[in-house]
Amino acid sequence: MPELALAVVVAALGLMAVGGTYKHHCDRARAVDTSRLLATLRQALAVYEATAGRPPATARADEVVGLLASRPVSAALLRAAPAPLLRGEDGGLRCVDAWGTPIRYISARTQDPAWRVRVQLAGGPIFESAGADRRFGDAASGAESDNLGSDALAIAAMGKSQAADE
Q: What is the model's pLDDT at position 163?
């Protein structure tokens, strides 16, 4: 009887380990998809700004994506987006990350000084995912947060291009 109890405990621990590893791999795959979506949104936004002369004057990611979709070149980029841009009940695009959480859009018009600094450092508006925990941190949360932001992608790309120039 004690052997059976030990076998059950060992099997349960094994299943817990496998389940945790599986969740980690799923979250990692979702993070990759969401990072690609954020990079696509940033690229579409750059195209929009080049043709419109300024970033969209709205504070909601869904509205921004709708404006991006109204321009042929940025609309083509959105159609190739690797993660979900869902159709809302009103027919507009709903911008969500791979966990199903709405994407946040932060522009220089934000009232938060820390966000204004991040937008300035990023060189323009930021799209942000809440990440696997589905909770947004604040602009200063940095490494403690699992948020994914298009500004981090832009900063990483700038670092790579500067390293290539050297």
A: 41
The CA-based dihedral angle spanning residues 29, 132, 143, 159, taken in that order and rounded to the nearest 10 degrees: 40
- Extract the tokens encoding 40: 């696509």
**CB atoms closer than 10 angstroms to residue 127:** 27
How many domains is the chain partitioned into structurally?
Answer: 1
pLDDT tens for each residue of 121-133:
888 888 998 888 8
**DSSP symbol at 103:** P
State the Cα–Cα distance between residues 96 and 130, nearest whole angstrom: 10
Please report the pLDDT score of residue 45 as a whole number. 92
Separation of alpha carbons 131 and 50, rounded Å: 29
Secondary structure, 3-state, 23-50 = HHHHHHHHHHHHHHHHHHHHHHHHHHHH
Q: How far apart are CA 136 and CA 9, in angstroms?
A: 37
| pLDDT, mean of residues 19-29 | 68
For the record, the structure tokens of 81 come out as: 């987006």
Would you tell me how many other CB atoms lie within 10 Å of the CB of residue 106? 22
Instruction: Mark out the alpha helices in 53-71 (DSSP H runs).
Output: 61-69
The predicted-structure confidence for 64-89, as pLDDT tens digits, reads as follows 988 888 889 888 888 887 766 666 66
Q: How far is CA 4 from the centre of its chain?
A: 47
